Amino acid sequence: MNDTQILHINETCIDEALLTQAAEAITQNKTVILPTETVYGLGANALNSEAVNKIFIAKGRPQDNPLIVHISNMNMLEKCVKEIPEKALSLMHVFWPGPLTLILEKSNLIPSNVSAGLNTVGVRMPDHPIALRLIERANTPIAAPSANRSGRPSPTTAQHVISDMQGRVDVIIAADHSRIGLESTVLDMTQKPPMILRPGGVTLSQLQSVIPEIIIDPQIHQSVDSPRSPGMKYTHYAPQAEMLMVRGEHAEVIKKITHLMDEHKHIKTAIICADEHLQDYQGQHCLSLGSLANPAFMASQLFTVLRQCDELNLDYVITEAFVEEEMGLALMNRLKKAVGYKILDV
Ligand code: AMP
Ligand code: MG
Questions:
Q1: Angle at 334 between CA 333 and CA 339, to 5 degrees
Q2: Structural domain boundaries in the chain
Q3: Ligand 1 centroid to residue 230 C-alpha, Å
Q4: What's the mean per-residue pLDDT of the chain?
Q5: Contact criterion met (CB below 8 Å) for 66 and 231
Q6: Which is higher by pLDDT, 234 or 281?
Q7: Which residues contact residue 143 at a Cβ distance below 8 angstroms, ignoring those fewer than 6 apart?
Q8: Phi then psi for 195, rounded to 5 degrees?
């Protein structure tokens, strides 16, 4: 058990003394949970293998799942990678700081546990004042996967982090709700054409506006045993409840969900849906992600709603399906994992 220090830092008025304390913990090879614009990250000095190992222990993360390295300036990037291809540079100019992780060939300074033995490394520059200042002050790249216990939904609030990680890390920086609320887009620049391994905060069409040939890994739509991105094979985000997605024409979806809810009325159930459909499930317990008119907001609420399923001790949860475009693609990618790819087409 660690004696976890919780530092409350306000992103619009950063307390320098507290930030220095967190930065010192990083330079002493301790673990620090930091807010980013995607989700909270569990960080440690990316250039020290013992520090990195503490991340795997705190999360209970399998060793074959590589970590994303967070940087605050281009000098740090040069330390982490062998070379910066022209196309990667043009993407960095447009999307950094921001929710885009680029897979590049790694340098020898990156310990092999960061990259899980691969010769590549995922790097990004977060768009969050606390994260950027922390990395800058510690003056070292920070390896940071999402700060959840392995298998749990990624944390998007300080409360999520404290409930998963108090006693397991040295420092928690408690700040606001993560603005985007889903993890970064992972784009593999070592493949031709470059391939999206995980959809996230930067969408396919945004990326294609800079590099038209970028494609999406066809594997992201299914459950596979040996994906190109090792992390994609693990069950993620799954609440304790039995989960199911019902997909199809809306009138049929309503009928099917209502019928299934009737069949399960002896146990605790809920429906994950959009605001516009709340009226279609009267008498049922609904957890709304928000309005269909604002897919980015719906995406930002997903992990909070998945955590609510556990807080409410639900036994059986059915979710609607949403349009798989733009942020909807990332939302559906996480939601399909949460239901363990159990999808009923009606
Ligand atoms: P997390 O940090 O929890 O958001 O997970 C990081 C994601 O990026 C996982 O899905 C990893 O498998 C993926 N990733 C990180 N580094 C690499 C890499 N070098 N090659 C392929 N995927 C990677
Ligand atoms: Mg994660």
A1: 100
A2: 5-221, 242-345
A3: 7
A4: 95
A5: yes
A6: 281
A7: 43, 44, 45, 46, 52, 55, 67, 68, 69, 70, 114
A8: -125, 135
Q: Is 65 in the pocket of ligand 1 (CB under 6 A)?
A: yes
Determine the atom of ligand 1 nearest the C-alpha atom of 232.
10
Q: Which residue has the tokens 């520090």?
A: 51
pTM greater than 0.85 (yes/no): yes
Q: How confident is the model at residue 61 (pLDDT cuts 50, 70, 90)?
A: confident
Do 5-221 and 242-345 have matching folds? no
φ and ψ of 302, to 5 deg: -55, -50
> Six-digit token pair at 202?
């930067």
How many residues are present in the chain?
Answer: 346
Pick the CATH number of 242-345 from 3.40.50.11030, 2.60.40.10, 3.30.540.10, 3.40.50.720: 3.40.50.11030
- Ligand 1 pocket mutation pick from 223, 229, 235 by most atoms within 8 angstroms of CB: 229
Torsion sign over Cα 128, 134, 137, 141: negative
